[in-house]
Amino acid sequence: MLSDLVAALDIGGTKIAGALVDGRGGMLLRTRRATPAREGAETVMGAVEAVLAELAASPLWPRVGAVGIGSAGPVDASAGTVSPVNVPAWRNFPLVERVRRATGGLPVVLVGDGVAMTAAEHWQGAARGHDNALCMVVSTGVGGGLVLGGRLHTGPTGNAGHIGHISVDMDGDPCACGARGCVERIASGPHIAARALENGWRPGPDGDTTAVAVAAAARAGDPIATASFERAARALAAGIAATATLVEIDIAVIGGGVAGAGDVLFAPLRRSLRDYATLSFVRRLTVTPALTGADAGLLGAAAAAAPYRRGTAAEVTFTG
Fold it and tell me: Which InterPro entries does the protein's record reference (predicted)?
């Protein structure tokens, strides 16, 4: 039977989503469970198995040739393990082997969530048609991935392109990763909000102190909120320009909750990029919002796994 479908899993701290995905990115079946993130390792795996069981109950399941997983990280694709920061019970958890066992020995491909988003944007989103791209998720953290020479570049452990932990301020505040002045330490949603609060910004009557509220205040002209987003934009611009200089990307795609701020983020980011991307071969670098939205994790997991479909998989290619 033709193995023209991929089972995709998107695993995060709040939800475990699954889908059967065809070669054009169509999601023929979807399911999801809440992530029991504060429970034990086997309870979390039980939720993954429940998602897989629902997919496997479909009459479409015999057409599945591989499983793709996009997971919160860190991940280690070479070992097949995951250690998501937001799932404390999973430390070096052998997710690939457990999923392989649960699916009767199907090929399983693991990538980090930033790499999954990159695969999705290159296949169906804003990076489509670009051979060299950086795609980023800017949310509670800052992650990313690379497309080089027209192919997803995951690196040996599946973490290549993790721009959030490039240091852009040598004397900056300590980051959770152990370094100082990382992009994530400045440009993630919680740090944008914390910076605004530290400098005197106060929330409205609803008491919302998230980056969404800071963005709304900046849009309304609040100078402190605006300054916090401008600082985040400079950090992102410095990281993007450094990446472009190193590997010659021509587009940077930004998704995640912070990207929802729109021009509050993108206008100062594009201005700052002109200050950092100064060499002739990076001056034409463009920055654009992501397009795949909430489906990025599932689409990217499917795209990453498509080349590994067993059986007649070699005869089938995913097309845009």
Answer: ATPase_NBD, ROK, ROK_cs
- Parallel, antiparallel or unpaired: strands 75-76 and 133-138: unpaired
Calpha distance 258→254 (Å, rounded): 9
Q: Copy the structure tokens of residue 96.
A: 């690939």
Express each pLDDT in 79-97 by its tens digit. Answer: 999 998 889 999 999 999 9
Residues 6 or more apart in contact with residue 198 via CB below 8 angstroms: none
Q: Are residues 58 and 102 in the same domain?
A: yes
Q: Report if residue 285 sits inside a domain.
A: yes
Same domain, 111 and 156: no
In a domain, 109, yes or no: yes
Domain of 304: which CATH number? 3.30.420.40
Q: Is the dihedral of CA 118, 120, 125, 127 positive or negative?
A: positive
In a domain, 245, yes or no: yes
Segments forming the whole domain that contains residue 169: 127-290
Please indicate, yes or no, whether the overall pTM of this predicted structure exceeds 0.85: yes
Q: Do the beta carbons of residue 179 and residue 165 sit within 8 Å?
A: yes
* Cis, peptide link before residue 74, omega less than 30° from 0: yes
What tens digit of pLDDT does each residue of 95-150 get? 999 999 999 999 999 999 899 999 999 999 999 999 999 999 998 889 999 999 99
Backbone angles phi, psi at 35, to 5 degrees: -80, 120
